Amino acid sequence: MTVINENQLTGKHVNVAMMTSGGLAPCLSCSISRLAHFWIQALKDGKIGGLTLRMYIDGYKGVLIGDSFIVPEGDWESMEALDYIGGSPIGNSRVKLTNEADCKKRGFIKDDETPLEVAAQRLMKDEVHVLHTIGGDDTNTQAAHLSKYILEKHGGKVVVVGMPKTIDNDVVPIRQSFGADTAARQGAIFFTNVVSETSANPRMLVLHEVMGRDCGYLTAKTAAYYREALDQQKFASALFPSSKASRDVHAIWIPETKFDLHAEADRLKKVMDTYGCVNVFFGEGTGVEEIVKDMEERGEEVPRDAFGHVSLAKINPGQYFAKNLSAAIGAEKTIVQKSGYFARSAAANEFDRKLISDCAKEGVATAIQGVSGCMGQDEEKEGMPIRAIEFERIKGGKPFDISETWFQEMLKDIGQTA
Predict the structure, then answer these.
(1) Catalytic annotation on 168?
(2) pLDDT tens across 245-296, in order?
(3) Is 278 helix (H, G, I), strand (E, B) or coil?
(4) Strand, helix or coil at 259?
């Protein structure tokens, strides 16, 4: 590894590595494109003396097993196309460097190795000066641990500049995480089609499950964007039962609001009796505590991922709500439709492209100065500046602020008590 004695990288040949990690979000490809763009611009402007762009395949898995490639200079310009492509062009994985047992089980390290040491040796062998981690709070805090480990154990210096990817928009203290706005827009598009299922059968219950483990932002924003689109839709005369009212959002359930299924059932039965259908938007993390408690009381094992999070796909909150609500409101048919994969796999929209570009520009400047951190609008600083936020301040689980005026007005409009 080339050990950098000075923090600043000005005038030096800089070896930049990038990786994406965790679940998909509409920002991964664009983040790689924008970071590469501003590194290339820094080279053209003479701020650095040379540049190598390395991509690790499948997140931390690629770092552990040494799977990466260098982008030839002749291919740099073509990376601009990534601005308009969804998914990750270099692949993702859910790997936690501090979960030694999981890394061994999956064959990423040997029995006598530790993930942090293997990853450190890889970055040193590849002579990485700057590592850009594009992921959620787990991805970025792990990178900070890795950088600290290299410094303390090997005397090396790796600048880590993270890019906050999560459609949940739940990273403290970042105002807006990458991809959340796009995902909300895409979720609204998804339901614009799905809502027509209300006309497929009498007394239909349509449950729209939106991603968001602990934060209701995405569910709320998706509902808001859907209702904006509904306001623009033209309808036939009132003689036709399929109307704006029947296609509206009738309930929004998120982890942050008080949830009384019995009270909601009483309210929604009146909606069902009036319009012949009910449309519910709910966050995938809503009611999880109740479901987990019920499973534990029955002595069942609660499925969890490598990070210790409850595996929502396996406990199936949607089916829980379908079972308990449909009978209470007299639904003849119930469907649960999940917009998550549709929404998260989209390309970044104009709003997110602008946010990503602004953060990437500042992130490259920050890296050249030798400063590590996670890029974003710092809510806890005056004026909410885009800056490299100290990793020790980065954490997940930020709740959605239900006091937001637009959200309270939406709940009032659909007749739901917050």
Answers:
(1) yes
(2) 999 999 999 999 987 888 999 999 999 999 999 999 999 988 777 777 767 8
(3) strand
(4) coil
Q: Where are the alpha helices (DSSP H) in 204-349?
A: 217-232, 261-275, 288-297, 312-315, 317-329, 340-344
C-alpha dihedral (308, 309, 311, 317), degrees to nearest 10: 150
Give 389's Cβ-side CA count (13 Å radius).
28
- For residues 242 and 272, what is the distance between their CA atoms, to the nearest angstrom? 13
386, two tokens: 């885009």
**pTM score:** 0.92
Q: What are 263's two structure tokens?
A: 């009270």
Residue 382 CB neighbours (<10 A): 6
Q: Which amino acid is at 242?
A: S
Give 4's pLDDT tier (boundaries 50, 70, 90).
Answer: very low
Which entry of 58, 83, 138, 168 is annotated as an active-site residue? 168
Joined together, the tokens standing for residue 254 give 């998120």
Q: Are 163 and 356 in contact (CB under 8 A)?
A: yes
Task: Give per-residue pLDDT as tens, 280-336.
Answer: 999 998 877 777 776 787 787 888 877 777 777 677 788 878 888 999 999 999 999
Distance between CA atoms of residues 88 and 85, nearest Å: 8
Residue 19, SS3 per DSSP:
strand
Q: Which single residue is written with the structure tokens 């519910």?
A: 280
Place of tokens 């959340």: 180
